[in-house]
Amino acid sequence: WGSGYGSDIVNDNGTWYSFVASPGGANANRIVRLDFGSDPTSVPTITTIDVAALGIPAGSDEWGMNIVKDVDAGKWYGIMADAKRNLLVLDFDNSLANAPVGKVHSFTAAQIPGLIPADVAIVKYNNQWSAFVCYFPAGWSGNASRLVRFDFPAAEGLSAAPTASSPTAVP
To answer: Residue 73: what are its φ and ψ, rounded to 5°?
Structure first.
């Protein structure tokens, strides 16, 4: 399916799923959902999700992905970053078997440096969701790596637009 990157594996009500972002290759701008059924060591059923059909800009080069369940809202979300300064939120509603609804949150060069996103981590702390995205310099060399924190409003959770913190240099 191209050069997969940013895999995550989770269990949704007894069914194991893995999601892989595909930023390049013949099938760029796609997410692959692997359904392992009840056994994560079985051969999965593969479904391709075209992110452009979700309203995510073509050529975004999605990198890094994290799947989380907001237990309070009863919803599953996929959070990804792309190379065009966007944070992408996929809303699967109450099941990862559902087709997701996509939402794009765009940021400026001051908020997100012109770097390549490598990984996404999502945490909920004190009733607030935050996404942490690690960005690497183009060419994957040098010491210009940055970590950006995106905070989602506590009252609205992952369905709302986040704010970006100032990039933190990573030595």
So the answer is: -90, -15
CA 114 – CA 108 distance, rounded (Å): 10
Q: % helix / strand / coil in the chain, to the nearest 5?
A: 5, 55, 40
Estimate to the nearest angstrom the gap between the alpha carbon of 19 and the chain centroid.
10
Q: What is the DSSP letter of 28?
A: -
- Residue 38: burial class (beta carbons within 10 Å; 0-12, 13-18, 19+): exposed
Q: What is the DSSP string of 95-154?
A: -TTSPPEEEEEE--TTTS-S-EEEEEEEEEETTEEEEEEEEE-GGG-SS--EEEEEEPPT
pLDDT digits (tens, 9 = 90+) for 104-146: 888 887 777 667 777 888 999 999 999 998 877 665 555 667 8
